[in-house]
Design brief:
Number of helices: 12
Shape: globular
Structural class: alpha/beta
Mean pLDDT: 87
Low-confidence stretches: 1-53
Helix content: 40-55%
CATH architecture of the domain at 67-188 and 276-314: 3-Layer(aba) Sandwich
CATH superfamily of the domain at 67-188 and 276-314: Bacterial extracellular solute-binding protein, family 7
Radius of gyration: 27 Å
Number of strands: 12
CATH topology of the domain at 67-188 and 276-314: D-Maltodextrin-Binding Protein, domain 2
CATH class of the domain at 67-188 and 276-314: Alpha Beta
Strand content: 15-25%
Length: 375
Amino acid sequence: MKKRWLQLIAVLCVAALVLAACGGGGSSGGNQSGQSGQSEQSGPSGQSGSSGSSGATGSSGGGGKQTYVMRIGTPTVSPHPQNFTIEEFKKQIEEKTGGQISVELFPGSVLGTAPQMIQGVVDGSIQAVAIPSGYFGQVAPAISVIDLPYFFDDSDHAYRVLNGGGDAKLRAYLEERGIIPAAWLRGSDRIIISKKRLENMDDFKGLKIWAFPNPISQAEIESLGASPMSLNPSEVAMGLMQGIIDGVASDVNFFNGFALHESAKYVLMAPKGAVANTFAVSKKWMDTLPADLQELILTTAKDIVENQQYDYLGQVQDKSWENMISNGVEQLEPSAEFLSAMREASKAVHDKFLGTDPQAQEIYDDLKEWIEKTR
């Protein structure tokens, strides 16, 4: 009798195990479904599901169109002109494509430092960025032609040349390196804010001045007799306050945005070099899109820059100067002698640029022709 009871208990245990296994299978299936749902969210590569690095999210079935996620990063925050541009781009491109392209914006270096975001564009893990040209030198040295002192007359001149067809050779060069310049944003002039008055070349001696992290921008500071410094943009204001740096070579919107006027009160209105904020799109990602969407991205970006961002930059620039001056900043116009000395010193920087890349001379000469034609 006892033996029969033991046999019955054994049978019931086996049955329970079978039922548990069936129930576990159902639970596991539900969990996989949940995981699948999670994978539909945009991952680090800006795409959904397992579609690789294309940024494609798949279609909704029933003959629906392929949809795409376009992640755009920038180191700045609103109301900076870079942010205005990508915000307007998101609105327009989503409307024009009926949601076929979904744009996700990541301001304030959320996706990494400027060099990290640019590398993401090259490898396709980030679909686009809006970043000054001065940060692209690590992956495309010849783009530093834009940053040369006394090459363009000023930022407006650079804007006219680059968006007027003068960027053809530079564009081809960048595309070979995985970067498509969808548009060159209008920028403000590159000038120098400092803690001390800069009225002649001797005033630069012993100073530590922040500049864009590329060899040409750094060489420009050296040509003036100062020491170039590299800090993350978010560290510049503190560096100026603590004396780690004595000045900054950038534009008025950068100065005002980081409230550099709290530590430095003098702005040398030279060399008035170009700060070209670049709306760059990943070629690796663009190559996965249909031709009509590729064209729409490029035309939309250029239209926004020409018809909206250009005027917006002017408004922001005026407000930046108004705020800086009201906080005690003094604009210093260089004397003819001082300006001549800076120009002469800059020749060595041009020579250095020509040795940075096998295509540097060709790009330099081509842009030089456009510069002369547009003066």
